[in-house]
Amino acid sequence: MENKTLVQFFDWYCADDGKHWKRFKDETPKLNSLGFTAAWLPPAYKGTRGASSEGYDVYDIYDLGEFYQKETTRTKYGSKTEYIDAIGEARAAGLKIYIDVVLNHMGGAEEKERIKVRMADPEDRTKLGPEEFEIEAYTKFTFPGRNGKYSTFNWDHHCFTGIDHAADRGENAIFSIINEYGDDWEPLTHNEKGNFDYLMLNDIETRNPGVRQELKNWIRWYYETVPFDGVRLDAVKHINPSFFIEWLDYIHAEINPEIDVIGEFWLSDDLPVLLNYIETTGRRMRLFDAPLHHNLSEASIQKDKYDLRYIFRDSLVAVHPDLAVTFVDNHDTQPLQSLEEYTEQWFKPHAYALILLREAGYPCVFYADLYGSCYGGKNKNGEDCQINIPVLECLPKMMELRKNIAYGEQESYLDDKNCIGWTRRGIPEKAGSGCAVLLSNHQSMKLGKRMNIGKHFAGKLFRDYLNNNNDPVRIDNDGFGLFTVCAGSVSVWVPID
After folding, report:
1. Fold agreement between 6-105+209-401 and 408-495
2. Distance between CA atoms of 139 and 494, rounded to whole angstroms?
3. Which residue of 97, 126, 236, 287 could cross-link 194, Cys pair, CB 3.0 to 4.6 Å?
């Protein structure tokens, strides 16, 4: 038995030195030793900003750092050869690889076309202007650096539902493209902004059969070029779910039935919308647990005013633990990013204990918490600022606990607003496994809780593996121990050999 754990091996501000694939390769032994079973890597294809692109401003999905396009051959992360080499090394060592797939939009077209459009209200995209008119827009992609290698598919205005710039007018707005598929947006499962099909750049038209076939051809090419084990799907709430049903069925039927799928449907305060999406797509993918992340961030901000009994309220992991990917932060939520909703540093040990040491969910550890991150930028007020995310010192120990100790039947004690805990009773296959976890957000007082760890531990001494408590705990004949936790802290009690 093995606890699965995913690492997000990047943050938004990774150095654009072209050495990230090499860093990943070099770090593979460390990731293995910590107990990670899989790694999620950033988008590997060429973006509109070339060597400085994080990969989410997609230009050419067939260019993995192989062709001189957008004034560079390599991507921000390195070359195609280095990418293939790093993944091969990691998979040979036993790490599963999740590629980041961005199929909502493209940008950086070489040629303009004269197209018919209607203008959309940005706050309610279903409100289209009554007048149809023509604009010139960059909607024709020729990929001159690739020159037809791997694919000769022609991307033009028939392949897009919308655009955000009229080149001849010098005007930025949301323009709905009129083509053979109509003048409306693709159907979605949620009515945010009326219809949130359009997000940015050239919005891909998945009702076009040619587009659907091309994206099937591409994912087969990708798998044959760089074998992978899973895909992380970006911005799924902006994409027609019928496309994913067809596309994922193709992957599982024609490429590999074992490919795991994680979708990013970003909505932190409306669990029923996520549940509806899961059912609409026939449970074909896991989803990131954005509602739980919101709870963790709020708990960190509110400190002892937050009622810890409700930390899992309205979370995906509480309803569909098998489909929830739990996380503390990611590249979108880190400071200065578009979805900034950061978990404050003092609460990160609590948050990681909640996702790593309980039995439910598929936890994902953020690169910046494992390696640290330091960068500058502008905050929401337009002011220059410097951000430093320090290495979370307790994270390696948390990973050791997940790898070796946090197994077995779980009993929860989510019964106090400032102090919650749970026990894991261990399993025979993991010698020395079993633990008692206690979390406190009280800012000044040491707290305790009597919890049952199982009669098979009767008479045993337990110690705090995180060294936040010095005195051991003796388990009584009924399997109970009085475990304690210091103010604003976490303790994980494990059996002493």
Report:
1. no
2. 60
3. 126
Catalytic annotation, pick one of 63, 186, 203, 264 = 264
> Within 13 Å, how many C-alpha atoms sit on residue 277's CB side?
30
Q: What confidence tier does 155 reach under pLDDT thresholds 50, 70, 90?
A: very high
Q: Determine whether 477 is exposed, middle or buried from the number of CB atoms within 10 Å of its CB (0-12, 13-18, 19+).
A: exposed
DSSP-derived 3-state class of residue 408: coil
CB 332 within 8 A of CB 366: no
264 assigned to active site:
yes
Q: DSSP 3-state assignment of 157? A: helix
Query: What count of other Cβ atoms lies within 10 Å of the Cβ of residue 492?
Result: 31
**Is 271 exposed, middle or buried (CB count within 10 Å of its CB: 0-12, 13-18, 19+)?**
buried
d(CA 341, CA 335): 7
> What fold does the segment set 408-495 form as a domain?
Immunoglobulin-like (2.60.40)
pLDDT on residue 182: 72
CA 351, 355, 356, 359 torsion: positive or negative? positive
> Nearest Cα to 39, choosing from 29, 54, 52, 51?
29
Tell me, yes or no, if 111 is annotated catalytic.
no
Tokens of 303: 């400190």
The H helix count followed by the E strand count for the chain is 9, 27
Q: Kind and range of the H or E element at 283?
A: none
- Domain segments of the chain: what residues? 6-105+209-401, 408-495
State what percent of residues in the chain have pLDDT above 70.
Answer: 100
Phi then psi for residue 212, to 5 deg, are -60, -45
Tokens of 347: 């609460």
End-to-end CA distance of the chain: 22
Angle between helices 209-225 and 241-250 (to 10 degrees): 40
DSSP strand pairing (324-327 vs 362-366): parallel
Q: pLDDT tens-digit profile of 199-249?
A: 999 999 999 999 999 999 999 999 999 999 999 999 999 999 999 999 999
- The pTM of the full predicted model, rounded to 2 decimals, is 0.97
For residue 437, the cross-strand partners are 422, 492
Domain 6-105+209-401 has CATH 3.30.1490.110: no
Residue of 27, 57, 100, 234 marked catalytic: 234
What's the CA gap between 331 and 305, in Å, rounded? 28
Instruction: Decide: residue 45, CB within 10 A, 0-12 exposed, 13-18 middle, 19+ buried.
Output: buried
Cα–Cα distance measured from residue 290 to residue 296, given in angstroms and rounded to the nearest whole number: 10
